[in-house]
Amino acid sequence: MKHLALGTALSFLAGAAAAQELNLYTTREPGLVEPLLDAFTASSGIEVNTIFLKEGLPERVEAEGDRSPADVLMTVDIGNLVDLVDRGLTQPVQSDVLEAAIPESMRDADGQWFALSLRARALYVAKDLGLTEFHYEDLADPEWKGRVCIRSGQHPYNVALTAAYIAHHGEAEAEAWLAGVHDNLARKAGGGDRDVARDIMGGLCDIGIANSYYVGQMLSGNGGPEQLEWVNAIRLVFPTFENGGTQINISGAAVAKHAPNRDEAVALLEYLVSPEAQKIYAEANFEHPVNATAAVSPLIVQFGDMTPDTITLTEVARNRKAASELAEKVGFDN
Amino acid sequence: MTRAWLAGVAAVAALVCLPVASLLVIAAQGSSGLWSHLAANVLPVALRDTLVLLAGVGVLVAVVGTGTAWLVTAHDFPGRRVLEWALLLPLAVPTYISAYAWLDILHPVGPVQGWIRAILGYSGPREFRLPDVRSMVGCILLLGLVLYPYVYLTARAMFFTQAAGLIEAARTLGERKVFRRVALPLARPAVAVGVSLALMEALNDIGASEFLGVRTMTVSVYSTWISRADLPGAAQIALAMLALVVGLVMMERWARRNQRYAAGQRPRPIGRNALRGWRAGLAMLACAVPVLLGFAAPATYLVVEAWKRIAFAGISPTLWSEALNTVLLASAATALVLLCGTVAAYAGRLHGRGGLLARATTLGYAVPGTVLAIGLLPLVAALDRGLIAAGLPAVLILGGSGAVLLAYMARFMAIATGGVESGFARIPPSYDHASRSLGQGPTGTFRRIHLPLSRPALVAVALLVFVDCAKELPATLLLRPLNVETLATHLYGEAARGTYEEAAIAALVIVAIGMAPVILLARQPRPRYPGTP
Questions:
Q1: Cα end-to-end distance, chain B, whole Å
Q2: Closest residue to A224, CB basis, from B124, B395, B501
């Protein structure tokens, strides 16, 4: 990171940027993407300037318009990617490398966005329960009353899960399910995904919904000894829909419509799905690689295989609004 | 010359109101279809929660802020000297950091509940646990304990310099009623300014309330925008909230429309009443508890967590450049905001129309930071285009620091205008008249009368704005240039991916940066007036 004065000077010169660099706008946290970008710079010689944004990335790119320095837009959640395309902030990319590495269902048909890694919306279970199989539908079963922990129903990860539920069972059943899950909560919906492991360890709840990769992060010991204690209290289970598979979401990227460094942008995307980078996704971030030639981290694999759901990502994206409204309707976070 | 001051305040008001106007434009692009869903499913809870939160925080900050200010200015008791400045320390702790720290301290599997269970002989949180912090009561206590210094600061300044004569005369008639009958009514404008600042902070807070599971209107703004990609709808809710706040502020001003607050005599500090025995103990306790809960506990937690992290992984090398960025941005913004706030407050004193414009400069404080920044985006972009078309370097360039500074200004002008105004309010209008009749214009009067006499208020405003800018997260995150991180954005990046342990060090540095001005604030010399010994 450079100093502010330098950063400002750079932005003055944004139009006259030197060759062999590119500008990345990302909603993925710096700590997650830095190892990948460092490896990319080492292998290609292209410098990457980054800005980490959260809410408002599309609004900022939109306001910058045709003078936007953004080359690559990187985000998580299919809804966010589709939103970028719908706003006309992306451009199509034709690349044999990308098409060979990424399965067809994990990229836009016109090359407007590409998935880079996968994550499962998984179940954390208290180890002593001995549970190894689970259906998302069971979360609403009164058997679990007062035993379930989960984060806010408005969080994109949970909105996507509800959206997939709508795709399987329709809106009316999804509403009943969501209300049932709410009735089973051991505590108010909230906190983060790791809190599910901590709360299970503390005996607040027995099961909870959280993303798969946090288990790897906690098991790796990088988060310190306390998190190791949390994760050792739980088991990771890949739940399925009764008539489908495990709900997965993606992290992905698109090339910005007015990218001043388009070639470098495509080079970054191609690098990110290469076996080398996919290995970093798997081993440093514990996500599932999108490129089938790369292996899942052993810390995750030990919990068994994961079968992705049959519902397509675009269908999930389409139900996002309805899912978010359902969460408000049943007062999921109240 | 009055006209120049009015032009100045008009320019400032325009800069602050434009983002709000641009939100109006965004809101108008949406349909009103959103409101039937909101009315059925969201508003009943969100409105109730918002009002309960505001009422709770309002009462808490008014009682704690005014009470402690009265104790330390009009009384003497052991520890008073230390507590007088320590009471300001919670200002240095951003609400989102305090929320996280308390949640961890009081977590069912955290230290406090662990000890309690060990003492009582319970084996796990299933058998015994305290009520969850993640509740309305938790949120009110938490925000109140961090935000009361806004009231403490304004009320204390008022008690310091008020007509000591009035209060001392009242004392001869019996100590008990002095506070309620004389001091409190006199301090009302200051308390009102402090409370309204605290309430607006509480209202546009997203981090702490979301963390604590309180579903305010602000949370609805976010879910409408983020989960449903309905920015116009989100802008509509934000504007409705803004209308609510403006209504409340106007009601308070209207309620004291016929009152005048300038001291008739030369202001001087009140003589202190020495407390003894249990009264002294109680006073000390009353002032120590807010400091312990609002500052000492979360800060100690951060020190412990940061220490563990440094021992485990060392300090990130980028931390110092992030700290430098934070200080640079906050300093530049403070200079800008102080200048504009002074212009607005003085123009308001000169002319009725200036007063209205001065009110307008405070609008931005009640709008959630990200929403305000979204309103600012198209404007900054348009400004840049204009500058480039005119062949000038686009100094504001979206993604340059200019945009961040503008956002800070739009956001924190309320602190400056309100603070400087209440500083001016203590200067009797007869001083203005005397100066003008001796041949000084408005500008000369300002330089020779208002500037020196309101110096303490100006310093207080500068320090408050600095601390607020250093803590600011949402607008900084959205508008900062490429490759630039501040401590707050770094901290957010870690917190967002759940690696809070990494964030503890950055959080501690934010608190430390915030503490420096707070201590300065407490040490600034007592206001001196011409002719006082």
A1: 35
A2: B501
